[in-house]
Design goal:
The structure holds 3 protein chains of 3 kinds. By secondary structure, chain B is mainly alpha-helical. Chain B has a domain of 76 residues: NADH-ubiquinone/plastoquinone oxidoreductase chain 6, subunit NuoJ (Four Helix Bundle (Hemerythrin (Met), subunit A)). Chain B is 78% helix and 0% strand. By secondary structure, chain C is α+β, with helices and mostly antiparallel strands. The chains are: A mainly alpha, B mainly alpha, C alpha+beta.
């Protein structure tokens, strides 16, 4: 690797990190606005125009709050919990292809930090480690609600990971590759995977809701039963990290959904406009982010529409609903691939 | 690379020892998780990305979560009495020693044998691995899946018996 | 029992049809309902900048009226305190000294007049009981405070300012019906 490439990668890395945090920050604001609009309210509008400085105000508030570590908590694990949640949430952004390839002065720069040939599995690995953030934090709090929350989180994530993996398996049968860049490359024009894998998309979507602990599957933190779930005992910025990690996860899972099923940075009809290659790449990245934002909006829209599942319903849906469906999906995909 | 290898190995060995020596089961589990992550690191050093990621997903992500799950439901504040009878201790030492002997015997040959042929660095990539598993080792691979299925059914039978 | 609206649905453990069982149509219907609300007119307003119109007979913060010459009307008769169901009003009466005729209308006046806003239920009985038309409830709001003490309002807050521009208009509450009512000699406080 040349020095130029290295510098470009480092810049890209920082850019992705900052954008991830920014999007997560403004997701909190967007969530409140969407919730307000759906409930016929106005929402935050005091801090700055339209309340645009609200996330900053929230952040400052979080930092100013007293940081409490409960007396009987396991201190090391208590501190580790939110850090793991935050770190793993950020790590997934590394393999998302944020855009095509820029051509600067005859050199080609890819707008992806690294293209692993097992990219899809890497996402699963990060999700798998992310469970520990919630589990350890909940257990270390030495609080029965936190413990229940973390036990719920763990069993929920393990249950839905299976259906999610199987939904992806069907997709991989179709694409024949695990690299996210190749999967995106195959979806040029209107060849989006959602048209080939509608059932798989549905399963993946439901599982993504469950994996990010978003409503209607926010069982680990459900306020009406468990106070705050795994973060009951947390305060100050540690609590902020947990909440923030949830929004980063939402952003990343929207990005993964857009990459796998909505053609990533591909924009239909753009090749007919006759723009220069670099402009097309930049517009593609913009279009990718529009897709991501629409998906984030969808996440929020669902949250403020559908009531929370009961725990047995959640397990029933995961094991008796989605898992067999995912198997059927794999069989149908295989059958179609053999026949065609 | 060599430095990375020694770093990973050192952390791995220390955490593996800590698994045995730590007083609380929860710490043991966490050290085991660290140990597994280091093993995954070794796989990456060998350019076996698929194995590394699957190792993280299966061992770190599923098996250890279940371990932790069980530990969470135990009362860990109660001191666990580690006193065992002499007979069990002797049996443990003998069986552990035998396992060690087998390992030494198995590794003795591989250390002295020279590295045969040219090393193909892409052998651990998912495509090559899939080819090997589904072409050369098709039958054993499928047999192992049947084995897993029977283990699953067995576990269900055991839990459903009462 | 006969239903009043015919909108109630009989519930029970009935078997769900396939469409109900897969939930998706219901989910889509719910999403349609919420997205409609996204573009609806908002039910809330930005309060301090925008204010809703009050009812003409809104009962808010009290005012102790002065007469046209700027003299306090209250004579500390105590009828309001007696009428108050929440016992929020206390007062201390004092005699008017010579030379204070421009301050107080009658020979007796309220040296201390306190309303505990934490107790007050804004029923308007004090206003109804007052024979002097001295106390009225206005369309002003009682702000929130950090200290309980701050919500015991004394004359400095309750009394109408002397300044002509700052006079508090209570004409909306002095409707002809109210004036007629006040003339009713049969009611004990109007005798």
């Amino acid at each position: 690797m040349e020095a130029n490439d290295l510098i470009f990668k480092i810049i890209l890395l920082f850019l992705v990190f900052i954008i991830t945090l920014l999007v997560a920050m403004y997701s909190t604001y967007a969530e409140r606005k969407v919730a307000a609009f759906i409930q016929d309210r106005i929402g935050p509008n005091r801090a700055g125009t339209f309340g645009l400085l609200q996330p900053l105000a929230d952040g400052v508030k979080m930092f100013m709050k007293e940081d409490i570590i409960p007396l009987h908590a396991n201190k090391a694990l208590f501190v580790m919990g939110p850090s793991i949640a935050m770190t793993t949430a950020c790590l997934t952004g590394v393999i998302i292809p944020w855009g095509g390839e820029l051509n600067i002065g005859g050199k080609i720069y890819s707008l992806q930090i690294t293209d692993l040939n097992i990219g899809v599995l890497y996402i699963f690995a990060m999700v798998a480690i992310g469970v520990y953030g919630i589990m350890l934090g909940g257990w270390a709090s030495n609080n029965k609600y936190a413990l229940l929350g973390s036990v719920r989180a763990a069993s929920q994530m393990i249950s839905y990971e299976l259906a999610m993996a199987l939904a992806i398996t069907a997709l991989i049968l179709k694409t024949g590759t695990l690299s996210l860049r190749d999967i995106v490359a195959q979806q040029q024009g209107w060849h989006w995977n959602i048209f080939y894998q509608p059932l798989g998309f549905l399963i993946f979507l439901v599982c993504a809701f469950a994996e990010t602990n978003r409503a209607p599957f926010d069982m680990p933190e459900c306020e009406s039963e468990l106070i705050g779930g795994y973060h009951t005992e947390y305060s100050s910025m540690r609590l902020g990290f947990y909440l923030f990690a949830e929004y980063i996860n939402m952003f990343i899972s929207s990005a993964v959904l857009a990459t796998l099923y909505f053609g990533g940075y591909h924009m239909p009809f753009i090749s007919h406009l006759g723009l220069s290659a670099n402009t097309v790449v930049m517009l593609g990245t913009l279009f990718f982010f529009i897709k991501i934002f629409l998906l984030i909006f969808f996440f929020m829209w669902v949250r403020w529409t559908i009531p929370r599942f009961r725990y047995d319903q959640l397990m029933k849906l995961g094991w008796k609903g989605l898992l067999p469906l995912a198997f059927i999906n794999i069989f149908i995909t295989g059958l179609v691939m053999i026949l065609l | 690379m060599v430095f990375l290898f020694y770093l990973l190995t050192a952390i791995m060995l220390i955490s593996a020892l800590m698994v045995v020596f730590s007083r609380y089961p929860i710490n043991s589990v966490i050290y085991l998780i660290i140990c597994f992550l280091m093993v995954a690191g070794h796989y990456i050093l060998l350019n076996a990305q698929f194995l590394a990621v699957v190792h993280i997903i299966v061992y770190t992500g599923a098996v250890m979560v279940l371990f932790l799950f069980v530990l969470m439901l135990l009362n860990l504040n109660a001191k666990i009495d580690t006193h065992r009878s002499v007979l069990i201790r002797i049996a443990a030492v003998v069986s552990g020693g035998l396992l060690f002997l087998v390992l030494v015997a198995a590794l003795k040959g591989s250390l002295t044998a020279p590295l045969s042929g040219k090393f193909d660095s892409s052998i651990g990539l998912v495509k090559n691995l899939g080819m090997v598993l589904y072409k050369d080792f098709m039958l054993p691979f499928e047999m192992s899946s049947v084995l897993f299925l029977s283990a699953m059914v067995g576990a269900l039978m055991l839990s459903k018996r009462q | 029992m006969e239903s009043l609206t015919n909108r109630s649905k009989v519930t029970g453990n009935k078997k769900m049809s396939f469409l109900e069982w897969i939930y998706l149509p219901a989910v889509v219907k719910g999403l349609y309902i919420t997205i409609k609300h996204l573009f609806r007119k908002k039910a809330t307003i930005s309060y301090p900048e925008e204010k809703r119109e009050f009812s003409p007979v809104y009962r808010g913060l009290h005012v102790l009226k002065r007469d046209d010459a700027g003299r306090e009307r209250c004579t500390a008769c105590g009828l309001c305190a007696v009428a108050c169901p929440a016992e929020a009003i206390t007062m201390v009466a004092a005699e008017r000294k010579p030379g204070e005729e421009h301050l107080y209308r009658e020979e007796k006046y309220a040296k201390v007049y306190e309303i505990n806003m934490l107790r007050c239920i804004f029923c308007g009985d004090c206003e109804e009981a007052c024979p002097e038309e001295a106390i009225f409830l206005t369309n002003r709001l009682v702000p929130s405070e950090y200290q309980r003490n701050d919500l015991i309002y004394c004359k400095d807050i309750l009394l109408e300012p002397l300044d002509d521009a700052k006079r508090i208009d209570v004409s909306q509450r002095q409707t002809p019906a109210v004036k007629e009512f006040k003339k009713n000699k049969l009611l004990f406080h109007n005798k």
